[in-house]
Specification:
The complex is a heterodimer of chains A (114) and B (338). By secondary structure, chain A is mainly α. Chain A is 43% helix and 0% strand. With 338 residues, chain B is an alpha/beta fold. Chain B has an 8-stranded parallel sheet. Classes of the chains: A mainly alpha (114), B alpha/beta (338).
């Protein structure tokens, strides 16, 4: 049965492709949320604005997960590593909101302080 | 316009037998070896295939050289060697036969044609001998290597190939696809054609990392490498990461004296097909701006079909950029004259 369903699913993908849709890209949007380990402008060749372009082109503002990568040499500071050109909303989402959504983590105001 | 990737291929091994010694004619007959048309790369039913490559000059002329968009110069890439199995002596014999076939049946018939000479990657000594045999013929402008390799091309086993290319002022061209018995990704074997197709771009990036990191350009400052049919829009994020990581571990590779991106910008170019560009024209222009129009060499990739990318690229370029991509970059990179 699974094999038959697999063939049907394959046909649907082919049909969608023939209609001009982009099923593979759609699947990536729905399923995995790639984690951001390093942002590309940090010390690289990227010119100002290139990171923002990458975020826009990939529609990544609600997909990226901030990570310090501590203790590796280039671990990122949450205060400094995201470029200032990001909107306030995108910054908040990357720094916390996306991870809360993905992992079901409590929002800041729901966490009892020490 | 200069077309940097036009395919041609013998329809059957019989086309090459005049260029093969008796031993290999018997070997082919006794073993029952046939050409397949490289269906692993260009499956007959895939929309990307676009039909068989021209098998003789008349066909090429009708399809590519006679039209209103005919190129001033076209570089022929024959991938037949990618079909050969792992007998290094056989691969070297087929390489020589393909090169002599290219010379006698294509280059001798039209001054507008240039070609990549093909070499066996299984036998570096034979590859060097073949480069030295044909390098003096100015119509051969490039040494063609498959992007699927046994080791990344910066590995020192390939240094004599790069050295021979430089000796004859030839570009090294790394072209999509390769021997089916070689993994299509940097991590292992795949299960689907979709993976294989998309992985050409990943393998090209592995060769870029290798050639810079293993010091090919420190050893051969005049080495030029063209990435053919492997895409180019992956360049900016690769360079962001390459430069950043080099800053952390540069002491391991002291021969890499400049930022890796400086070597990549100077020593590499990429052909324009396939062009994986966004549909949004503003975003497409932003991507092309990040790649840089001076990094791109126009290619039709005839007869293969890659969708709307070429038109998106054309619209994304300004007029000087368009002219550079159409001819200027290739003329300078391949030393083709104006």
């Amino acid at each position: 049965m699974g094999g038959v369903r697999g063939v049907d699913a394959g046909r649907r993908v082919v049909d969608a492709a023939r209609r001009g849709a982009a099923p593979a890209a759609g699947a990536v949007r729905v399923h995995p949320r790639p984690g951001l380990v390093h942002h590309p402008a940090a010390g690289g060749a990227g010119r100002a604005g290139e990171f923002l372009r990458a975020v826009q082109h990939g529609r990544l503002a609600d997909r990226l997960l901030f990570a310090t990568d501590y203790p590796h040499w280039d671990f990122d500071s949450p205060a400094q590593s995201l470029p200032g050109e990001l909107s306030k909303e995108a910054r908040a989402a990357i720094l916390a909101g996306n991870a809360c959504d993905l992992y079901g983590l409590p929002r800041e105001r729901e966490v009892a302080g020490p | 316009m200069i077309d940097c990737d036009v395919h041609c291929a013998p329809a059957a091994l019989g086309a090459l037998t005049p260029y093969l010694p008796e031993y290999w004619r018997l070997y082919i007959a006794d073993a029952g070896i046939r050409l397949t048309g490289l269906p692993i790369a260009y499956p007959p039913g895939a929309p990307t295939t676009g039909g068989p490559a021209p098998a003789d000059y008349g066909e090429l002329r009708a399809r590519v050289l006679d039209g209103p968009d005919a190129p001033r110069l076209a570089i022929l890439n024959c991938l037949t060697l990618f079909e050969t199995h792992r007998n290094p002596y056989y691969a070297a014999a087929i390489a020589t036969a393909v090169n002599d076939w290219l010379r006698a049946e294509w280059l001798d018939r039209d001054d507008r044609l240039r070609a990549s000479l093909v070499v066996s990657t299984l036998d570096v000594e034979a590859a060097v001998a073949e480069i030295d045999r044909l390098g003096p013929d100015p119509r051969f402008v490039q040494v063609l290597l498959p992007v699927r390799a046994d080791a990344p091309y910066g590995n020192r086993r390939y240094h004599p190939v790069h050295e021979a290319a430089v000796r004859h002022d030839l570009t090294v061209g790394i072209h999509a696809w390769g021997r089916p018995g070689t993994a299509a990704t940097p991590t292992g074997f795949t299960s689907t054609y979709l993976q294989d197709l998309a992985s050409n771009a990943q393998m090209a990036q592995s060769h870029v990392l290798s050639l810079v990191s293993e010091g090919a350009f420190a050893r051969f400052p005049d080495l030029r490498v063209a990435l053919i049919e492997c895409g180019f829009t992956w360049l900016p994020p690769l360079l962001w990461r390459f430069d950043k990581d080099w800053k952390s571990v540069w002491r391991e590779v002291p021969w890499v004296k400049e930022r890796p991106s400086a070597y990549v910008r100077r020593h590499f170019r990429a052909t324009t097909q396939p062009a994986a560009l966004p549909a949004d024209p503003v975003q497409a222009a932003e991507v092309v701006d990040m790649v840089g129009a001076n990094w791109l060499l126009h290619a039709s990739d005839h007869p293969h079909v890659h969708g709307p990318g070429a038109e998106r690229l054309r619209l994304a370029l300004d007029e000087p950029g368009r002219e550079a991509v159409r001819a200027g970059n290739a003329s300078a990179f391949y030393r083709l004259g104006s």
